[in-house]
């Protein structure tokens, strides 16, 4: 038992890995042939992804109500990432989170039509900010090992990056290996990470008891009781009997 209690003391609280979704998604560069909000609103997913089910959660085929993709500025036969930045800018997303997390993995569901499609993004740059996007001191480049279909692809960051804002840039697609690729697209994105425990939480306790007012009320009640007792001793109606001399009766 002593050893168990000691282990609890030294281990500290356990912080569980969780699925983290951005609170807001903003497309900073690129276009929206299908809207960018489809990357983070759960559209096309078979269920809300959690840490226990995301590996078996699948994403439907790409459409205007399930996925995001760019325009095809070079025409249907072009490679989006071979075009000039002026006509086909690298797509950039600004992702903000409700609080700061320690991010460990990038997760995405791909852009497919029941068959793999070359529009699906293959390479990514992630930049991490802890000051709401004023600065991005940490960045990492990721390459997908394979194109996806309905299931999620998880890309480990190989480190833990604290951030409340992430800038995500897509730097390549699968044009070289699969049909399609005149656009850049994805189905849905999430992250894995943990949420640090606030070392000095502010606990907001409603003022159920005002000790100052309570003490004043108690003092007032004591004074009133004392006054009543005094009054009772002086007032016959409250039990003070007058003894009359029988000679006078
Ligand atoms: Ca989606
Ligand atoms: Ca490519």
What does this structure look like?
By secondary structure, the chain is α+β, with helices and mostly antiparallel strands. The protein has a single domain (about 15-195), classed as Galactose-binding domain-like (Jelly Rolls, Sandwich). The protein is about 15% helix and about 30% strand. Strands 1, 2, 4, 5, 6, 7 and 9 form a seven-stranded antiparallel β-sheet that branches. Strands 3-8 form a two-stranded antiparallel ribbon. It is elongated, with a radius of gyration of 34 Å. The N and C termini lie far apart (about 90 Å). About 30% of the residues are buried. The model is unreliable at about 235-249 (pLDDT under 50). The site of one calcium ion has 5 residues, from strand 7.
Question: How are the elements arranged and paired?
Answer:
Layout: H1 2-11, E1 18-20, E2 24-29, E3 68-69, E4 92-109, E5 121-129, E6 138-143, E7 152-173, E8 185-186, E9 188-194, H2 211-234
Antiparallel strand pairs: 1-9, 2-4, 3-8, 4-7, 4-9, 5-6, 5-7
What would you say about this model in short?
This protein has 249 residues and is α+β, with helices and mostly antiparallel strands. The chain is built from two helices and nine strands.
Rg value: 34 Å
Bound small molecules, by name, code or SMILES, are:
calcium ion
The coarse silhouette is elongated
Helix content: 10-25%
The name of the CATH superfamily reads Galactose-binding domain-like
Quick check: average pLDDT?
86
Q: Please report the distance between the alpha carbons of the first and last residues.
A: 88 Å
Strands, total number? 9
Supply the number of helical segments.
Answer: 2
Specify the CATH class. Answer: Mainly Beta
The profile of the biggest β sheet is: 7 strands, antiparallel
What structural class results from the helix and strand content?
alpha+beta
């Amino acid at each position: 038992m002593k050893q168990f209690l000691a282990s609890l003391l030294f281990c500290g609280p356990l912080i569980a890995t969780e699925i983290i979704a951005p609170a807001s998604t903003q497309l900073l560069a690129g276009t929206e042939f299908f809207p960018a909000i489809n990357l983070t609103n759960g559209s096309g997913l078979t269920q809300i992804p959690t840490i226990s089910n995301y590996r078996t959660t699948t994403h439907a085929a790409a459409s205007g109500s399930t996925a995001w993709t760019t325009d095809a500025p070079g025409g249907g036969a072009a490679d989006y990432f071979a075009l000039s930045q002026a006509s086909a800018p690298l797509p950039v997303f600004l992702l903000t989170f409700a609080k700061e997390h320690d991010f460990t993995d990038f997760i995405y569901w791909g852009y497919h039509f029941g068959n793999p499609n070359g529009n699906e993004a293959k390479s990514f740059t992630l930049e991490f900010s802890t000051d709401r996007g004023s600065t991005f001191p940490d960045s990492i480049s990721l390459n997908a090992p394979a194109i996806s279909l309905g299931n999620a692809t998880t890309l480990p960051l190989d480190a833990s990056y604290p951030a409340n804002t992430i800038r995500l840039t897509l730097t390549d697609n699968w044009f070289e290996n699969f049909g399609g690729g005149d656009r850049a697209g994805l189905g849905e994105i999430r992250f894995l990470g943990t949420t640090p425990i606030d070392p000095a939480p502010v606990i907001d306790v409603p003022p159920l008891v005002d000790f100052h007012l309570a003490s004043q009320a108690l003092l007032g009640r004591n004074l009133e009781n004392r006054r009543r007792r005094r009054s009772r001793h002086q007032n016959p109606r409250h039990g003070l009997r007058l003894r009359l001399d029988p000679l006078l009766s």
